[in-house]
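Our consortium's second objective concerns turning raw sequence data into structural hypotheses that experimental partners can test. To show how far this objective has progressed, the report includes one record in full. It was chosen at random from the queue rather than selected for favorable results. The single chain below, 231 residues long, was entered without modification.
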Amino acid sequence: MTSPSPNAAAPLARIARDGLWHHNAALVRLLGLCPLLAVSTTVVNGLALGVATLAVITVSNGMVSLLRATLRPETRIALFVLIIATLVTLVDMAMAAWFYPLHEALGIFVPLIVTNCAVLARAENFASRHAPLPSVVDGLATGAGFAAVLVLLGSVRELVGHGTLLRDAELLFGPGAAGWLLQVPAYDGFLLALLPPGAFFALALAVAARNAASARHTTATSRTAPAPANG
């Protein structure tokens, strides 16, 4: 009997759960922490970088999967980096053309998506071993999980640090979004939340909350699981 093909498609639902929760790039694997901590000062900054990262992971996974049969082992990593760098350059140019003020606010962290270990890790560990559809789903789930953490940290740090939500929304959504700003009355903000120590504290709380929720789910599942029958 032949062994299962390494390129057999894994269940798409499980792939999505892994990328979003069980193996979340930011909260579980702790990858891409430099942009995660530096950019997440506002919701808008976190969302913009999260969407850019999601697009790069998804498209790079799909391209690597399509090319996997032609890649030579000794050159595959260099080709992965070339594909990722090309996509990041396109995203960076698009942001500079259509969202220039936001592009300036994000600064070097859009080009630095090239060095995000989560992008290269998914290309090497998943896309190069699976068919295009599960690879794209993996990219979407991994990117969405990373973007969700960016938005979460941005929300918490902006709310605590500035006392606002959706600050500078017009940079991403256009002039009409200037009225979306939500302000906490009679609160001037807490500067520590916007500084690097505040970023580490916020991430630590997010990791702890995720681990606690996962532990509770595991305990509840074990309690409701049927007992094994006696032989």
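The partners drew two points from this record. The mean pLDDT is 91. The longest strand covers residues 164-165. Both points have been shared with the crystallography group to help prioritize constructs.
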